[in-house]
Amino acid sequence: MKTDQRYEIIIYWSEADEAFIAEVPVLACCAADGISYLEALQNVEIVIQEWIETAKEIGKSIPKPKGKLMFA
């Protein structure tokens, strides 16, 4: 499942979890993992869609994609 939203996704390897972690900084607590980079990306796309669907159901505002985020 692909989402039509264009949120920034950060993917990194976690030694502690022994998995790739994919996080969506703009969506609070939106993250997924996978045994490969691609699996983490596919899983987080599903989680993004579920996050958006849940936000709509409970009347929570949905942040707009911001493009590349800057880190210090």
UniProtKB/TrEMBL annotation:
UniProt xrefs under InterPro entries: TA_system_antitoxin, TTHA1013/TTHA0281-like
Top-rank taxon, per record: Bacteria
Protein name according to UniProt: Putative RNase H-like HicB family nuclease
Organism per entry: Algoriphagus antarcticus
